[in-house]
Structure formats: C-alpha cells, structure tokens
C-alpha cells in the first residue's frame, strides 16, 4: 500500500451525533430508534443523491425528501417545513463535528511510513470543505489530494473519481487503498477502479449482493489502527 484514501462522512467522524442533536430540537425520538432512523436517512439520501448532483432535484427538495421518508419509516409524520428545519439544524451541528481520536495515530503512522494520504467525498463543495476544515484535516492532507464530488463533477461510486485521484497521486490503482463506511459508494467504487478497499462497517449493515468484495471489513473504531497497520 503506497496510498491510503479516506471517505469523510461517518468514517472520519460519527455522523449520528449531529443527526441526533438536530432531531432533539424538533421531535421526541426513542433512543433505540436513532441509529436505525439514521441508516434509513442515509439510504434515502443515497437514493436521491445522483438526481440532486445532476440538477434533476433541488438540494432543498432532496433534504425534505430524505428527512420526511426516514421519519415516516418509524411512524413520525412531519411537515415539509419541519423536515427542512431539522435539516438546517443538522447542517449547523455538522459544523461542530470532531475527528474520531483514532485517526491522528493513523495519519501519523502513514506519514512515518511514507504512505500518501487523500480524501474522496461526495457532497456539495463548500459543505464538505467546511467539515474538512472543522476537523482540522487541512493539517494532514494536501488540498490537491482532496476530491469533493461537488467540485470535480464526479460522484462515487463512479470509478472516474478514483482514477482522478490516481492522476493526482501519480500512482496506479493496485497501490492504493480506500477506507469508507458505504459498501455501495466506497467499496464498489474503489474495487471497480482496481483499488484495495477496507469497508468500515461500524453500523453493522448487511453486505449487499455485488460483484465486488472488500479486502478487509472493520466493525469498530478501535480496530482501525491495527487493521491499517497490518494491511
């Protein structure tokens, strides 16, 4: 492994925390429902992401859609206005996210080993860049090696965004490993580009039927250091 590339959302930080804080401002949700509700929210977000990226659905409409449908799955009926208000608070609390404490050790190890690092993330450019800056990632990553779909016009799992990273690094795919929490976007996209892939399945999702498999599966934050250092 000559390079290790990271996903951002729910990989470098726990995305449930800002989601839960946003919900608490507007509705009462049973604690045991938070994680499955969040997973439903992510599923609906993925469902409309491409339509939003190419302009077939407005960002506002996609925010309302994913929030309303996720809540409805658990019996919570909210208006468009409430769904949008929750989303606005969710965005606000994402401005207060913190890098999971396992990653500085991983970043330092990569630097000591001469392993290049980068980021590939889906989302609007300014929104994702704010998260990257909030977590202090600009201290670890060269911006040339940070690819945000909203900036480059390519979204995961399209292998073209992974190939663009190869060009930026001056490396071939077999020398690069990708770490991410989404099987569909991260594992499938990386493997389609002939990269190695570590699936960070800390939400214990069921592995979908797919033509690709992850090279490693990690299910807990505290397992990441050992797996990466032995990869």
From TrEMBL:
Protein's UniProt keywords contain 4Fe-4S: no
Molecular-function annotations in GO: metal ion binding; phosphatase activity
Keyword match Signal: no
InterPro entries on file: HAD-like_hydrolase (IPR051400), HAD-like_sf (IPR036412), HAD-SF_hydro_IA (IPR006439), HAD_sf (IPR023214)
Cofactor(s), by name: Mg(2+)
Parts forming coiled coils: none
Biological process (GO), any one: small molecule metabolic process
UniProt KW keywords: Hydrolase, Magnesium, Metal-binding
Annotated protein name in UniProt: HAD family hydrolase
